[in-house]
Amino acid sequence: MKLNSTKLNSGLLRAVPLLAVMAASILSACSHNPPEYQRPVRTYKKEPAKAAVANMQLAIEYMKLGQLSNARECIEKALTEDVSNPDVQMTAGLVYERINEMSKAEHAYAAANRLGKGDPNIANAYAVFLCRTGKTAAGEKLFVDAANNPLYQTPWVALGNAGACARGSGDMAEAEKYFNRALAIRPNYTEALLQLGNIAFDRGDAAQARDIVQRYLAVNPSTPEVLWLGFRAQRKLGDSVAAAVYARRVQTEFPNSEQAQNMRNGVDR
Prior knowledge:
Helix content: over 70%
Oligomer: single chain
Largest sheet: none
Low-confidence stretches: 1-34
Order of helices and strands: HHHHHHHHHHHHHHH
Radius of gyration: 21 Å
Strand content: under 5%
Number of strands: 0
CATH class of the domain at 189-269: Mainly Alpha
Shape: elongated
Distance between the termini: 25 Å
Mean pLDDT: 86
Number of helices: 15
CATH architecture of the domain at 189-269: Alpha Horseshoe
Structural class: mainly alpha
C-alpha cells in the first residue's frame, strides 16, 4: 500500500520527531556554543575511537548550524576512524538523510541498529526513517521491538510511532490498535489521543471524536490541534454553541496558529 507521507510526517513529528526527537537526543549532548568551521580532527595514532567521537560531535554541531557540507566531511572522517561505533553510524544516517542521500542513510541506520545490538533508541530512529521512506512493515516491527525492550523508558512513544506509521500507510485499524496499546501504558498520552480522535472524525464518527477531545482536555493542556478537532466534531454533530466555544478558544489561546488562520479564512478541514 502506498505511503501517505503527509499524514505520516505530521504524526511522527508530533509523536517522536526523528530529526526532532532522535536527533535532539544526540544534539543535546553537544556544546552549546558551536565552533566556527574547523577541519576534522586528525586521527589520534593510538586512539582513533576518540577521534571518531570528536568528529561525530563536530558533525552534530554543523548539522545544528545547517552547515551540511561540513557535517558530512566530519562524519565521513569519523566513519574511517571507527566504523563499528553505533552512535557514529546513527549520526551518519542523520547527516545523509538531511542531504537526501537516502541509500547511504539507510545503510548507516541499518549498521547502527546492527552494531547497537538492540539499543531501543537506535531502533526507534531507524524505524522512523523506514516509515518516512515507505518501508512501513519494517518500521512498525522495529517500533514494536523498541516498545517491548525493557531498557526503553518510553514504550508508549514507540507504539505511538507505530500507529502513526500505520496510519500514514492507510491502515487505520492497525493504527488504532497501536494507539490503544500506547494508551494502555500511558492513559493521558496526548499524541495517541489526538490521533485516535482524528481517525474517528475521518471515518465519520464525530461523537467519538468529541468524546476523545473531552477526555484529552480533562487531563492535558489544550493545543490548537485538539481544539480544532473539537470544533469540527461539534459542528458536524450540529451543536453550534459547543462549536463556537472551541472556535473562540482557538482564536484567543492560539491566535497565531494555523487553525486560527483557517477559521479566519473560513476553512474547516
